[in-house]
Structures are given as structure tokens and as C-alpha cells.
Amino acid sequence: xxxxxxxxxxxxxxxxxxxxxxxxxxxxxxxxxxxxxxxxxxxxx
Length: 45
Fold this sequence. Notes:
Layout (H helix, E strand, L loop, with lengths): L5 E4 L5 E7 L1 E4 L4 E6 L2 E6 L1
Antiparallel strand pairs: 1-2, 3-4, 4-5
């Protein structure tokens, strides 16, 4: 979390998705649920 926003990092700690989400939740199936400005969506990594 940076400045209250969530992003995603790789195993080395480098951002693969810059912090931009108000809420983010990862799942083991390669998908993630994210919210930005109150709108939710599912991403596939």
C-alpha cells in the first residue's frame, strides 16, 4: 500500500501494477478483485 492505494508486486518486490486501487484482493487462481472509485472489477494476471 502506498498513499492508501494498492498495487501488485512480483516475487522480487517490483511493481507489476502500480498502486492505483482503493481495495485489492488476490486469489490463487491468477485472478484478483480490485476496486477503484467504488467500482469493482476482476482482473486476470
